[in-house]
Amino acid sequence: MNIKDLKRRLPTWSGRSKWPALIVLTLLLLAGIGYLVILFGGRFVVNEEDLILDEMTTVETVEGEVIERIYTKNRRNIPIQEVPEHVNDAFISIEDSRFREHSGVDFKGIMRAVYKDIIAMKKVEGASTITQQLAKNIFLSNEKTWMRKTKEVMAALYLERNYSKDEILELYLNRIYFGEGTYGIEAASQHYFQKSASELTVAQGALLAGLPKAPNTYSPFDHPDKAKQRRNVVLSRMYDTGKIDAAVMKQMQGSTLAVERAEETSETWSNSYVDLVIHEAADKYHISRDELKRGGYRIVVEIDPVIQKIAADEMKNGEFVPGTAESIEGAFTLMDHSTGALVAVVGGRDYKHGDFNRVLAKQAPASIIKPFAVYGPAMMTGNYDPYSLLSDEKQTFGGNDYSPNNYDDKYEGEVSLYQALIESKNVSAVWLLDQIGISYAKGYLEKAGLKTKDNGLSIALGGLSDGYTSLQMTEAYGSLAQNGERKESYTITKILNRNDKVIHEHTPQKTEVFNAQTAWYLTEILQTAVQEGTAKAGEYPKALAGKTGTHQDQHVWFAGYTPEYAGSLWMGYDQSGEIDGSSAYPTLLMKDILTRIDQEKNLVVTFEQPEGVESLPEPVDLPVLTNVTGRLNLSGLATLRGTIRWSASDDERVVYRIFKKENGEDVKVGEVTGKNEFKVSAFGIFDQTSYYVVPVDPLTGKKGQPSNTVSLSWDL
Question: Would you call 95 a catalytic residue per the annotation?
């Protein structure tokens, strides 16, 4: 057979048979490519970041009590190990009984769904596995199209290749919506049963497993009959799949729903504090509000719920300073001055989330600045002590014709530093600031956390261009209770991420403002101010030191401290309006709050004097002498002697100086301390020399009023 015959016998491609083969090959190639795309293209559908589910942030006490939750979606993610096996079985039985066997797509279910779609000529049934549902919910929309379904399959296959079954189930249980604003198995369990998912019974797990299909339709609160019917369907499926036996199924189907709706509350007592926590998280730790809503943090804070509730209630219902218009507002802060921990914060009389938090508002401090701008710095020079005399005369200072007035427009010529602070003398404060120097005093203000750009003598009276917040004033006063050491205030003890790892923790910050002696002197003086001075309004029987302040007719303050806490209370208008009252109002309210706290906490009765500091002597009350007498008598060798007598004060520290009038001048002839008589020499039987007595305060050197004038006469 030659070559030509061989070629005739071999099959040849005719034009008619070649094209069908090419088409088949092309289709096979495209099918192969399509298969590979579906099999491996999931990486283009899946965004790994989307697998990090939004989770609520909790604000909780050091003891673990949750105060508030911050979230966009009410979700608390939990690991699959915390979900009971029977709860997992309930979801798998009703949603995807072959979950543990398939590779992400249930092809039998798909073929059944495709057949029904073809018969109906439209999309009527799905066969989505748990993995597909997860893929759709996280990465895709809810539209019913073949393209969306293809992407769903691609994403499901990707998830199955890269995550274990337990990881997929964990994501699914934490992701799904259970109605009434709850997302995930833990939030749903807390919402419907007031318990953690780890404590769910078989029947309760079955009820939750039945909700995702139609959360509103099967709501156990709104539609209990439908919810029970759906729960029982889930229990039947658990029996069908061998997860429970018939006896358990019957028992659980006969049980009640056992749901428990949480008490609805409109309480806002913690809102101010939590808003300050959110502010601190952003300002100090750079975690935004939006991040808190989705980040799943645990923020451990220093709030004392008992004190916070008392403060919020008193600020809402207590008596406030009257004014020319309504809407007088307030701000209250209370801090543990030993640590700086804020135990209570109230930013308004009826504060709700989103309101203006007034504890962060800067207000002119008025006279509550005096211990830090004037009297503390003056004593730190070593040239002044509590009984140093200060000018209290109406006068003009500097080249700017600055002429301050005392609030009562009364002037005593000179007063002790002690008296000037207790009675809040304005002229004395300005005079003393002028003596020690503005720049010197500002250095102490900065240490107290009260930095100011102002440079005038009005600093002494708190007339500042910017002012200070309630938090700043609380910190400053807290330093006086801590031997002059200021602690930075804070709300957040630590922040934990969603894996319960501590990522931020408070680091104490402290600054020495005054030495211990000056701080103790101020404490003793400010205690007297509360008992007898400008802050005497109201009743509080235990240890309290503090100062009041009134800024023109705009707002009033009280700031002070107990052995445990430092606090401030401001009342006034946010913008326009004039108050019609005094600083007695914030003082009264502060004492009311402390009284209620004392009933719960049993606060300390007295301040403890620090070691190594001197106690402040009690002030001397100079007597007014109106009954001085002079008598002549014979002494030895017929010498004439005279005796000047008066009614002495009970205070044996008083010094009495005796003067005689001689040739038109007053001449001191002697002095005694704590006695009621003085011996003088007489010049003759008819000696008519005039004498008088002047009481003197040994602490200040201040002289009292001269007594009546007497001459010596014989005793009859």
Answer: yes
